[in-house]
Amino acid sequence: MTAVGDHFRWKQRFAIGDDRIDTEHRYFFHLLEELDLAMRARRGDEVLGALYTALREYARIHFRDEERYLAQAGYPELDQQIREHGRFLHHLKELEVNGPGAAAALAFVRNWLVEHILGTDQQFVRWRGRREAHHPARS
């Protein structure tokens, strides 16, 4: 049997190879797990609201950091990342974390995060690998 919140846990396959970004992604999963546990324990609208606010604020901070990192790397698909982040933040504002739609809202956030990390973020990893293969660091 799967532990409560297990599917909200960080997995190594999500790593992009940058300690700061990977740590921020791990923290996203921590917040999702906390929300999941709070919902399952029926901890109340106030607790859920506070955790959800923390998730929204953290998303803004993380996206700013990630976009800055990609810009510094010269990533040509930065605009795509910025659009995806903006759409996600818009959806995040519209979600209800209290009431009957809470579980679906949490599933949406988790699924978006996993798809974004394994899709868009991993595209960056592949791009960086190709660039480094063609332009190895000079010693």
From TrEMBL:
Pfam families: Hemerythrin. The keyword Membrane does not apply. Residues 18-126 form the Hemerythrin-like domain. The keyword Nucleus does not apply. InterPro entries: Hemerythrin, Hemerythrin-like, Hemerythrin-like_sf, Hemerythrin_metal-bd. Keywords: Iron, Metal-binding. Belongs to the hemerythrin family. This is Hemerythrin-like domain-containing protein. The lineage of its organism: Bacteria, Pseudomonadati, Myxococcota, Myxococcia, Myxococcales.
